């Protein structure tokens, strides 16, 4: 009989995973799996459990938010590539950005069916100073909202938690002196309020990037830098660029693709990876690990 490891975060998204358990496990059983169920016990637990046991299973499915997914991926990537089972994902967090990338359905039963029997697809994974990320690494404005917003607030307000806490700080935002060089020879330097290296069509449940510009398995990141605005005109240029997804001629928003980017700054930059704190760095290389993870996708 096929073996499936099901790892879920009981605290994610208003404890949604708990309410999904019966439907999810029923589908797994109907699809012919013998199931091992493991709730996470705290930060880092999913990584450890998957690293220790995943090689003995035909499939690993995780249920929780993007943080739980990130931990599960970390466990899988600690294994030799030939020992990594296909990963299934059942989103149960606050914004669930990554689920939009792999065309997951909405109903619990359909999510479970895709997780244990969806189309397997090899995708890229990012590496930030030795820590993996699936869809985004970022610094600056709003990037600490996900991990600094209390869990209760995230659960009650959902998507609005990200918006409200961020908008409340617009009057006092920091800027960062940063230099970026890429493997393609690009060099950008200046003061920025935001920077991201991503492989996603959705950020914070709000920003939707064009799917035809984002490919999950091409070995390339999509990167964006927003310069520090000095005037109301600068702000308008930035907002227009983000709304129309067209880079402005004045250079207030810089966009590029790369497989590797090197960031340096005089003062430590706080980075987030997949919505969680990723560390402070003055010298950092972000690299694309092409097609190292196989994940079950919707149609």
UniProtKB/TrEMBL annotation:
Pfam families per the UniProt record, alphabetical: DAGK_cat
Keyword Iron-sulfur listed: no
Entry GO MF terms: ATP binding; kinase activity
Keyword Kinase: yes
SUPFAM superfamilies: NAD kinase/diacylglycerol kinase-like (SSF111331)
Names of the cofactor(s): Mg(2+)
Gene Ontology terms: biological process: phospholipid biosynthetic process
Record InterPro entries: ATP-NAD_kinase_N, Diacylglycerol/lipid_kinase, Diacylglycerol_kinase_cat_dom, Lipid_Phosphate_FormReg, NAD/diacylglycerol_kinase_sf
Keywords from the UniProt entry: Kinase, Transferase
Residue span, DAGKc domain: 1-132
Family recorded in the similarity comment: Belongs to the diacylglycerol/lipid kinase family.
Name by which UniProt lists this protein: Diacylglycerol kinase family lipid kinase
Organism: Candidatus Enterenecus faecium
């Amino acid at each position: 009989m096929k073996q499936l490891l099901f790892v879920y975060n009981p605290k994610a998204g208003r404890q949604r995973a708990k309410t999904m358990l019966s439907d999810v496990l029923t589908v797994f059983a109907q699809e012919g799996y013998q199931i091992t169920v493991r709730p996470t016990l705290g930060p880092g637990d999913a990584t450890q459990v998957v690293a220790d046991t995943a090689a003995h299973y035909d499939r690993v499915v995780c249920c929780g938010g993007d943080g739980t997914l990130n931990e599960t991926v970390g466990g899988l990537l600690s294994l030799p590539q030939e020992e990594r089972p296909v990963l299934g994902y059942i989103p149960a967090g606050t914004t669930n950005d990554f689920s939009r990338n792999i065309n997951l359905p909405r109903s619990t039963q359909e999510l479970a069916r895709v997780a244990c029997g969806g189309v397997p697809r090899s995708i890229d994974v990012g590496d930030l100073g030795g820590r993996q990320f699936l869809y985004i690494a970022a610094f600056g404005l709003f990037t600490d909202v996900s991990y600094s917003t209390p869990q209760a607030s995230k659960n009650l307000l959902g998507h609005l938690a990200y918006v409200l806490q961020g908008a409340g700080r617009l009057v006092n935002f920091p800027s960062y002196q940063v230099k970026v060089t890429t493997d393609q020879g690009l060099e950008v330097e200046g003061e920025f309020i935001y920077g991201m290296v991503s492989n996603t069509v959705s950020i914070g449940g709000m920003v939707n990037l064009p799917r035809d510009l984002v490919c999950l398995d091409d070995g390339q990141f999509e990167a964006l830098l927003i310069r520090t605005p000095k005037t109301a005109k600068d702000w308008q240029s930035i907002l227009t660029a983000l709304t129309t997804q067209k880079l402005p001629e004045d250079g207030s928003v810089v966009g590029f693709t790369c497989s590797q980017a090197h960031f340096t700054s005089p003062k430590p930059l706080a980075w987030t990876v997949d919505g969680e704190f990723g560390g402070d760095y003055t010298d950092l290389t972000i690299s694309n690990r092409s097609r190292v993870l196989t994940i079950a996708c919707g149609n």
